[in-house]
Amino acid sequence: MWLAALLLTAGQDAPAASREGGIQADAWSILDALPPGRERALRAAELLSDRERVPSAAQLESAWRIGTQEAEALRFDSAVAVQRALYERVPALWSVSNLALSLNRLEGAAAADGVLSQWLPQARGAERADVWSQRGQFWLGAGQAQRGRTYLARALALGSADAGVMLAREDLEAGQVSSARTGFASALLQPDPSPWALRGFGVALLTP
Asked: In 3-state terms, what secondary structure has residue 207?
């Protein structure tokens, strides 16, 4: 989903990118030939930060893949470097979410929450619910249940089904079985309910 959004967003800049000549393309070609690692990620971040040239859709996709590979390899410092540059180049829900995930692993929930809260005023429609849900999940993971639940409740009010499932899970773990059943049942009414909602509802039914 994020990759599709990247290509859609980047496509708007493609004509400008095509006018920039071959220097930037050659730099990205060299970058693609490098093995995965910090050096490649930092070079990608430098290329993204070059405001004199507009990267093409393919170059943005390459940077996205590099950041993802660094995060999967647990090199979160270099993942953050390229993901932050990518977010600054293309501020969108997919890019800020990607950056927040790595920041959460590198620096903690406060850092992840910081970039999400800064981007929140730009969010539109369902994006706002998604951002509040992500913020809530990060704080839950950090052990700050009250803050996490508050943010998830805000996301739920904005229409986030994921937030409803998370709150129901928290209720189930706290022994509030009736509330958990209600939450999971509500999530199952969504057009495309999460598998976690079905599993959670089953567990809640079996819990005395």
From this structure: coil
